[in-house]
Amino acid sequence: FEIWDTAGQERYHSLAPMYYRGAQAAIVVYDITNQETFARARGWVKELQRQASPSIVIALAGNKADLASKRMVEYEEAQAYADDNSLLFMETSAKTAMNVNDLFLAIAKKLPKTEPQSTAGAGGRGRGVDLSEQSPQGRGQCCSN
């Protein structure tokens, strides 16, 4: 996995397409103790559904499950939203690591089983550099004069 974390900060919003362009999966995280973060998460899901690849796997993670006594977003509300939008859904705790591995495993199981034919045109992905010693066809070595 290549993981990019914008922490949902508004200052990164205009840069977000750079992060999810060509992505095969996205995890949208909200804080179960803060209803406003759930509303913002829904906005991110909507944007991903509108602008990311149609085959992207989107997971919704309700974080801070270790603070369930301070819950402001009900599990059933988030699960219903996830079901309505075909999202994977789990409540997690970054503090205790509850369901973190399970979420990544669930995403991995939903990803395509085969590699795409060419990743070079996948919206900026495939940014690898060929470090082999062969020179490009029809050209001489760089700086050989």
UniProtKB/TrEMBL annotation:
Record carries keyword GTP-binding: yes
Query: What superkingdom heads the lineage?
Result: Eukaryota
Q: Where is the composition biased (Polar residues)?
A: 132-145
Keyword Nucleotide-binding among UniProt keywords: yes
Keywords for this entry? GTP-binding, Nucleotide-binding
In this chain, the stretch annotated as Disordered covers 115-145
Q: Which GO terms describe its molecular function?
A: GTP binding; GTPase activity
Question: Which family does the record assign?
Answer: Belongs to the small GTPase superfamily. Rab family.
The record's listing under NCBIfam families reads: small_GTP
Q: Can you say what this protein is called? A: RAB5B, member RAS oncogene family
Which species is this UniProt entry from? Answer: Cyanoderma ruficeps
